[in-house]
Amino acid sequence: MPLDPSAVAERLAGSPWTVAGDAIVRDIQVPDFLAAIALVNRVAQIAEELDHHPDILVHEWNHVRLTLSTHSAGGITELDLGLAERLDALA
Question: Which Pfam families does this entry report, sorted A to Z (predicted)?
Answer without folding.
Answer: Pterin_4a
